[in-house]
Amino acid sequence: MEAKYTITKKDLKVTWFSGSGAGGQHRNKHANCCRIMHIETGVITVGQSGKNRLQNQKEALERMANHYKVRAFLESKLIEVENGVSMAKQAEAYVKEA
């Protein structure tokens, strides 16, 4: 069984900033670069290789989803949920027997 993880908007803090380096006035003038922080782990990823906000946000989100600390955090949450469910089933079985 493959586990699927979800990160919601409330778990993230998104900020936009203007890039630096090659690209001229357009790159320096517009805030198209995306910085995303996962609030619970403190992991920060940046997307700035694209020319528009959507490309950069997608890049930062992909990096966030693949970051080892975020994956470990989500896996630990999944284990907690699985253990909680099994404990609830055990308690339910105990109550039925009594």
* Broad shape: elongated
Number of contiguous helices: 3
State the share of residues found in helices, binned by percent.
Answer: 40-55%
The string of secondary-structure elements, in order, is: EHEEHH
Distance between the termini: 34 Å
Rounded to an integer in angstroms, the radius of gyration calculated over CA atoms is 20 Å
Low-confidence runs of at least 5 consecutive residues = none
Describe the structure.
It is built from three helices and three strands. The chain has 98 residues and is an alpha+beta fold. It has a three-stranded antiparallel sheet.
Brief synopsis:
Helix content is 51%, strand content 16%.
Present the secondary structure layout.
Layout: E1 12-17, H1 24-29, E2 33-38, E3 44-47, H2 53-66, H3 68-97
Q: Could you list some keywords that capture this structure?
A:
3 helices, 51% helix, 16% strand, alpha+beta
